[in-house]
Every structure is written in structure tokens, then in C-alpha cells.
Design goal:
The protein is built from 4 helices and no strands. The protein has 83 residues and is mainly alpha-helical.
Length: 83
């Protein structure tokens, strides 16, 4: 999957972020400052890595899974007026 155009990090940078916190013991605040992201973002990647492993650091679709399954947004609904 291509990198999201607004993404501040790529999967490789995300793995570096995770390894610096998990393996090197650096504080999330310091790592966030170094990669110019928020501490919340660092914690998000760390949480995803711990729950999903390396695949959790890959790009994800921005669309809601429910929208993909139901096809919402592709259908046109018409509103009938009561005359």
C-alpha cells in the first residue's frame, strides 16, 4: 500500500520509533521530539506493534471497515418528496 500523503512517518521510521522505545529504553517524549511527531503517535505505534507485530506498522486504509463492507458511499439515495 502506498504511503498516505499526510503521513509523517513511513513503516521503516515507525519500526525505528518502536525499537528506540522498546529496545533502547528511550522515553516516548524524547523519541517523539526526535521524529517530529507527538508522544501520542509514538505510543500508538508502540501499542500496534505489541498487539500485531511488524504488520501493525504498515499503512492502513483510512476508510471505515463498515463502509467497505456495506458499500456505503457508493449508493445514491433519493429522497422522495411528499406532494
Amino acid at each position: 500500500m502506498r504511503l498516505h500523503r499526510n503521513a509523517r512517518t513511513c513503516p521503516h521510521c515507525r519500526s525505528l520509533i518502536v525499537s528506540r522505545v522498546a529496545d533502547s529504553g528511550q522515553k516516548p517524549t524524547a523519541v517523539a521530539r526526535e521524529f517530529r511527531v507527538t508522544e501520542r503517535t509514538v505510543r500508538k505505534w508502540l501499542k500496534r506493534f505489541r498487539s500485531e507485530g511488524a504488520p501493525g506498522l504498515e499503512e492502513r486504509s483510512c476508510r471505515c471497515a463498515g463502509m467497505l463492507l456495506l458499500g456505503i458511499g457508493r449508493r445514491r439515495f433519493t429522497i422522495e418528496s411528499k406532494s
